[in-house]
Amino acid sequence: MIYYILSGVHLILFGWAFYNILYFGIKPSKSLSWILICFFFPFIGVFTFLLFGINRRKIKFLELKETKKRKKYIKSTFKNTENQHTDKLESRKAEKISNLIYNNTGIPLEVHNKVQVLKNGKEAFDVLFEAIKNAKEFIHLQYYIIEEGKILTELLEIIRQKRKENVEVKILYDAIGSFHLKSKIKKELKEIGVEIHPELPLSYGNFIFTLNYRNHRKICVIDNKIGFTGGVNITDEYINDDDFLGIWQDAHIKIEGDAVANLHKSFLKDYYYATEIDLGKEERYTKVHKAASDKKIHIVSSGPDYEQSVVMQQYLSFINLAEKSICVLNPYFVPTFPILEAFKIAALSGVKVTLLLPEKSDSKVATYSMYSYFESLLKAGVEIYLREDFAHSKVIFIDDKITSIGSTNFDCRSFEHNYELNAIIFDKEITSEVREEFNLRKEKANKIDLDEFLDRSNKQKTLERLCRFFSPLL
Questions:
Q1: Taking the model in full, what pTM does it have?
Q2: 260: Cβ contacts below 8 Å, ≥ 6 apart
Q3: 252 in catalytic set
Q4: One of 186, 298, 394, 401 is an active-site residue; which one?
Q5: Could you tell me the residue range of the domain that residue 409 belongs to?
Q6: With CB atoms counted within 10 Å of each terminal CB, which end of the chain scores lower, N or C?
Q7: Is 354 found in the same domain as 233?
Q8: What pLDDT, on a 0 to 100 scale, did the predictor assign at position 60?
Q9: Domain check: are 40 and 75 in the same one?
Q10: What pLDDT band is residue 43 in, cutting at 50, 70 and 90?
Q11: Per mean pLDDT, which range of 32-41, 299-308, 338-347 is the poorest?
């Protein structure tokens, strides 16, 4: 009797899930994976779908309350802006990329900036901490991961000194990414006047609706004059030689100029979301400071609060508009079908496509899934290099002219669920510098040979296929 009751409940739940997948799913491959999971894993499958798979962009009844608030804030913040500097870009493809970002986000291109590329964690922390030490008015920090260690200890010492100088300090951290950040540290920071807040906390009543939506951005804004963004978190992974992954390698950038104000607007939006305090109306937080340089930067903000998958469209535009070369450095390569096809089309049409990826990562499922895409890419002429060290950088540049550095991985999670941020730099000099570093790392990597790759073991192939089944859900 109990068996029939449970079977009936399972069929009802599966029917509900099937309806939502059928009518609100976007990608057939992802929809099929969810249907199979919901059917073959009674109760657990539907619960997992509710947590991680439901399309809250289309099902307005299940749209996050916080997402509605973010959308309203975005419209009010950027309603009076125009993308008026695209005529200063050197090519039509650069204009198209800039217009795509502007029409998706409302964030305009800025043209008076100075940019410094920070090639690894140590360099990034040295420059970041020096800039924080020189802050006069405020320091605003936002990271996915903040965890105990030497890096955080050094940062806290600087913050204590800046608070003695009456410099304002506000910190945002992701509740999941910084799960191990101790209450003792947060309490100490609050006692010295630092405002520190979690983003998307897993509290009673919103657990189901927020677990799958993480804030993956890395932002630092100092006095609205200097900004930092990229892939670096506040963690010792960048200085400690881990037995499995070694010292993490990452890319970050320092920006001085008018693009810092747009970077800051992303922080202010997230601060409003975390605290319901709107700082965007205060002049000191919105004042634009132009730099005596001409680097053109477009800040790309992406997340469930936008109607489109902004960063996926950004990456697709890079791949589709490239004429000579595409170079990608990324730690997690689990591409969506459109991204995969775009890479193959580019390579088959004569564009040189080079992927520099880690041989292993902190996720075995992601690693095996990544390998599962290699065969079709190699057959299309894409060159793939594997690094022994763990490259956490999220970089793509095309035709030695346009570079993107930020927080976004090549996977469904970054494209659909995470709040991400990239900076597009339209500059030959910066791209040349990035390419030089890319080539140095490529020389130390192992190029995959198609014939040797096809000869891998059946066990390896089976693991790849099994993990690829879950790739739309990663």
A1: 0.88
A2: 113, 221, 224, 225, 226, 227, 289
A3: no
A4: 394
A5: 310-473
A6: N
A7: no
A8: 45
A9: no
A10: low
A11: 32-41
**What total of structural domains would you count in the chain?**
3
Domain membership flag for residue 91: no
The residue from 399, 401, 411, 417 that is catalytic is 399
What is the rounded distance in angstroms from the CA atom of residue 398 to the CA atom of residue 378? 19
Q: Phi/psi at 31 (nearest 5 deg)? A: -65, -45
Q: Would you say 166 and 136 are in contact if contact means Cβ atoms under 8 Å apart? A: no
CB 98 within 8 A of CB 299: no
Average pLDDT of span 244-262: 93
Q: Are residues 428 and 447 in the same domain?
A: yes
What integer pLDDT is reported at residue 61 of this predicted model?
39
Domain presence at residue 74: yes
The reply to whether 250 belongs to the active site is no
For 63, other C-beta atoms within 10 Å of its C-beta total: 17
In the listed set 262, 293, 324, which residue is the last one of a domain according to the structure?
293
Confidence of residue 361 (pLDDT cuts 50, 70, 90): confident
Same-domain pairing of 26 and 71: no
Tens digits of residue pLDDT in 102-145: 999 999 999 999 999 999 999 999 999 999 999 999 999 999 99
Q: State the catalytic residue, choosing from 140, 170, 197, 216.
A: 216
**What backbone torsions phi and psi does residue 188 show, to the nearest 5 degrees?**
-65, -40
User: Considering 265, 293, 321, which residue would you say is the last residue of a domain?
Assistant: 293
Shared domain for 351 and 259, answered yes or no, is no
Q: Is 140 one of the catalytic residues?
A: no
51 against 185, higher pLDDT: 185
Residue 434 reports pLDDT greater than 60: yes
Question: Which amino acid is located at 299 in the chain?
Answer: I
Task: Tell me if 225 is assigned to some domain.
Answer: yes
Residue 218 designated active-site: yes
- Joined together, the tokens standing for residue 377 give 């890419």
Asked if 392 is an active-site residue, the reply is yes
Query: Which one of 119, 174, 223, 298 is the catalytic residue?
Result: 223
Selected catalytic residue, list 298, 392, 401, 417:
392
Give residue 184's pLDDT: 96
Nearest alpha carbon to residue 450 among 401, 379, 380, 399 = 379
353 and 442, same domain (yes or no): yes
Q: Contact, 410 vs 105, CB < 8 A? A: no
Q: Are residues 57 and 73 in the same domain?
A: no
